[in-house]
Design goal:
- 2 copies of one chain form a homodimer.
- The first copy, chain A, has one domain (2-158): Nucleoside Triphosphate Pyrophosphohydrolase.
- The longest helix of chain A has 13 residues, at 39-51.
- In chain A, the strands form 2 sheets. In chain A, strands 1, 2, 3, 4, 6, 7, 9, 10, 11 and 12 form a 10-stranded mixed beta sheet that branches. A two-stranded antiparallel sheet of chain A has the order 5-8.
- Chain A is an alpha+beta fold.
- In chain A, a hairpin with a 5-residue loop joins strand 11 and strand 12.
- The first copy, chain A, has helices at 39-51, 116-127, and strands spanning 2-11, 14-19, 26-27, 30-32, 54-56, 59-70, 73-85, 87-89, 95-96, 99-105, 131-138, 144-152.
- The interface between A and B is large, with 50 and 50 residues.
């Protein structure tokens, strides 16, 4: 089961996105968790490798089960962990082998081309408190077939 | 990569723990995530199956990479997701095929027999705000060899 961690910087009303060459769709920078890492370490390492910058105080915003279905059959499944940070150290690459890094006003998350589940997740990450969970089912060409979403907000444990 | 979700109820200064028969070690009730589920759904389903109760407003407290090493080689690896809830609906089973369910004062988490990484994680879950991440490396008989821990607290994104 592959695990992908990505990280969205949301600073001064702008977000740092990676435009991938294949469809010109936007994603938050990230990549595959490696054996023995924690998911936090994976998110920071992948973000740093892809952008040449270090995120400041990242925190988790979402955990998603991603499923590809073809002809009613599940053909792939992985987990996606989305982090946010409000600041970063360093100057991002402009272009990498993964695509082009661009700052966009946060409200453009509503309209930039991207997978529809990613839009749901990134909008949650920048606008809402707490953590979102869910399952997104896509066709092989990333048309969203179905989504189910849950949400949690940390409660106060009074006996700590 | 197996993914385990567990859930600790912490209510009225007591926690609900499962005493496993093999070593009489204590754990939070939980079990394996199934294909297509979200991790939130897995935690609630497994907790409900093991206790016959429904957790109220659970929220995530930790994500861990668990590694078993033998003779310096990694022989197993899985992920553990720990949730907390402050209340539950229903009356827990007293005994299940998995072990005996017992309420204990929260401070007994410091001394009840359990894997040392589990102690670290459950104490964090009941006492601290935010989310803990980390990697725990054990021998095959669950002696803790090494741990690395990270932590995050949600920041305020000012442009939401």
């Amino acid at each position: 089961m592959q695990r992908i961690a990505n990280l969205l910087i949301c600073k001064d009303n702008e977000v740092l996105l990676l435009k991938k060459p294949r469809r010109n769709w936007y994603v938050a920078p990230g990549g595959k968790m490696e054996t023995g890492e924690s998911i936090f370490e994976a998110a920071v390492r992948e973000f740093t490798e892809e952008t040449n910058t270090v995120p400041i105080k990242p925190y988790l915003k979402g955990i998603y089960t991603m499923v590809i279905e073809e002809d009613g059959k599940r053909v792939d499944e992985w987990m996606l962990f989305t982090f946010v940070a409000k600041d970063l150290e360093g100057t991002p690459f402009q272009e990498t082998k993964e695509g082009i890094l661009e700052w966009h006003p946060v409200e453009e998350l509503h309209k930039l081309p991207m997978a529809e589940g990613d839009r749901t997740n990134l909008l949650f990450a920048v606008h809402e408190q707490g953590i979102q969970y869910g399952t997104f089912v896509y066709t092989p060409d990333f048309t969203l077939i179905k989504e189910t979403i849950q949400y949690s907000l940390e409660g106060k444990v009074n006996n700590g």
